[in-house]
Amino acid sequence: MDVSSKEILPPSKVYFYTCSALAREIFFFPLCTGHFYCTKGYEVDRGRYDSFLLIYVVAGKGYVYDGPQRLEVRAGEFVLVDCYQPQHYGTDDNWEIYWLHFDGKVARQYYELCIQNGPLLRPDDAAMCARQLQRIYEAFHGERSVNEADVSRRIVNFLTAFMQPPERAKRQNKATDIVDETLSYITENIAKPLPLASLAQNVSMSPFYFSRLFKRETGFSPHEYIMHARVNKAKYLLKFTTLPLKEIARSCGFSSECNFSTAFKKISGVTPCSFRAGNA
């Protein structure tokens, strides 16, 4: 949604999200995310807002208070804030930022590990961390349903990078790049057949090693992830279009309406018709 404020300029946007009960139980989950263009005078000074906040400065500079200490935050830097405590941050100049409020059952433990040297973070691969945050924002900004497992994976990726030594982070980032490339490929080609061999070939790996890497990074086999991605897209089309089931099945990569209905019920627990009618 658009943001209306004297200090927050167009085309700034913010998105709020209510996650599923399952996500609250087992995942890191987002509460809200945004992309802001802020002018001089933008300031947040508030009490408790139960979550943790990650801010990435794309351009310009701002500040955040760590207790009584004021820290300058510049382009390319991150700051991680415990919003279970009062927060105070903003800009005296101007800045462009991506931000995410998130939480999870082990978020506190991750937070404590990440901020051992303070809340201002300069990870070895800032570009990867920024990309993870931006991809989460894009999941809400785009016209497709949110994959809660994928959002959680991205949160884990940047939190892990914040606490890793450089050499280990580089190895992790290479694996993340391979999986990210594959996830983008799947999203862009969801209506087409996506055999394991072609996914592996696309990133110059053998099917065996690609499958192991993909499972380790996402928690899903390639086939499981593709089926969930297809069902997630189908959920969006069922809720926000009037397309017939046959057309939805085709556009989501299912070979027939029957196969679509079977897969949808297996993953969602209800039929496509029941989901469209709101009985889910």
Automatic annotation (TrEMBL):
Tagged with keyword Cell wall biogenesis/degradation: no
Pfam families, alphabetized: AraC_binding, HTH_18
PROSITE patterns assigned: HTH_ARAC_FAMILY_1 (PS00041), HTH_ARAC_FAMILY_2 (PS01124)
Keyword Transcription regulation on entry: yes
Domain of life of the source: Bacteria
Keywords for the protein's UniProt record, in alphabetical order: DNA-binding, Transcription, Transcription regulation
Domain HTH araC/xylS-type: 180-278
Molecular-function GO term, any one: sequence-specific DNA binding
Entry-linked SMART domains: HTH_ARAC (SM00342)
PANTHER family: ARAC-FAMILY TRANSCRIPTIONAL REGULATOR, MMSAB OPERON REGULATORY PROTEIN
Protein known as: AraC family transcriptional regulator
